[in-house]
Amino acid sequence: MRPQLPVRRAVPVLLWRRGVALGIDAIAIGLVSGLLGGGWIAQGFVFVVGWLLLRVVVVSRNKGQSLGRWALDMRIIALPGGTPTLMNLTKREGLLAIATFFAVWGITHLSPTSAWVLLLLVPLGVDASIAYNDPAQSQTAHDRYGKTCIVESRRGYSLDVKIRRLVAQLRTRVRR
To answer: The pTM is what?
Structure first.
């Protein structure tokens, strides 16, 4: 039987919000590895090292929040509760780093003559589809492997809330 969410107010985060937070982290690390230049192996190495620094070391010291998770008010918890251990974070993020690197590399190398690189998005798609089919806990494959879950937090920047307010204000001004 899989571990359940802790009873205390732990609300799983919607999959689209998790995707945006993942995108924020991936763009930040992708920019650094892209500026390095070199071949895809060197970029991949820098990406994975940067990913592990941001998503393991920073998360373990920042109460379960990476840059993207902080921006959208969410954090990672271990099941049954608390901040995950370095080992659980490393297992979880190691899988995700490889899949995310392939996705970022594929998107940055997309052209009319190399549309095949979109196939590099498949590992992330499979991972997300597992969470999509688990609405109760919204756990992806890497969450299950690392025995973790992403939940809402009161600590963060609330970027999604601020964007919604801005869009609402713009709609109000356009209607006038």
So the answer is: 0.84
